[in-house]
Amino acid sequence: MPAPRTPRTPRASRPLAAAVALAAGSLLLTACGSSVGSTTTTSGAAPIPTQAIAPVPADPALAGLVPADLKSAGKLVIGSDTSYAPNEFKDEKGKIVGMDVDLGAAIAQKLGLTAEFQSAGFTDIIPGIQSNKYQLGMSSFTVTKARQEQVDMVSYFSAGTSAAVKKGNPDKIALDDLCGKKVAVQDGTTQADEVKDTRNPACAKAGKPAIPNDGDRFALQTDVAQALVSGRDQVMLADSPVVDYALKQTGGQLEKIGETYDSAPYGVILAKGSPLSPAVQGAIKSLMADGTYKTILDKWGVAAGAVTTSEINAAQS
Q1: How far apart are CA 182 and CA 192, in angstroms?
Q2: 181: domain range?
Q3: Residue 46 lies in a domain
Q4: Closest to 48 in 3D by CA, of 225, 236, 239, 248
Q5: What does the DSSP 8-state code read for residue 143?
Q6: Which residues, if any, are the signal sequence (predicted)?
Q7: What is the pTM of this model?
Q8: Using one digit for the tens of pLDDT, what is the confidence trace for 180-221?
Q9: What does the alpha-carbon distance between residue 156 and residue 306 come to, in Å, rounded to a whole number?
């Protein structure tokens, strides 16, 4: 993908299930073609939050920064890889929901606009921004220098990488030594790069077997979780809020191992040098100040990733 995405993840351009769910003791999830996915939840799965976020009034000063063509259109088209619960995914009715979705809607409102989220393959989002198909990209993109060479990134959240295994850790997986283990990752993510560029070279240097295939890579994060629950893989690596949510959605079939590491900010993607970038930054800061930001993060159970300010292109690596 154009600049591998941050600890989170990417997915292919296909609608997907609201989240990983349990039925008859096995993971059920629907995600096919262009049809809307659906899931059946049981008492063992965490419910999808339904709390409504109150609309926020437009900020005249920020709205004044919006280019005339966007102001005339009245909306921001936002590309998002909707397979990354709880950040962005589809509920059982096919509606795009999640932390990024609520935050994107509030950002648009601050600018006097409405938000229109469109499902996209993770690797298609940056090219879509560059071709003006989307004005914004909100899909758990980690802020990196490599991405900043292509697009503007406005920070709004912090996440790291976490690991999960089957409950009870039957294979005795140690996070600091995954050599020779079957590791599930989403293709194009920071975790996929980590396996290929960091973990496997370290395994080779230590004279240990490599992680097979540089990791078992999937287009959708939901498929990563399914591979672990089914026993196809022994461990999965993903962004910390995604792993935390997967633990709830799989009804106790998975557990986290080790500590979250390599925390870094997520960023809203915009065209390089876009006049809209400072407006989006201002909107995020305003949402932090009025409490809407905290309300959204609390709703989705991801308050641990809250940040206190927003920056433009502030990657350190």
Answers
A1: 13
A2: 160-262
A3: no
A4: 248
A5: P
A6: 1-31
A7: 0.76
A8: 999 999 988 889 999 999 999 999 999 999 999 999 999 888
A9: 8
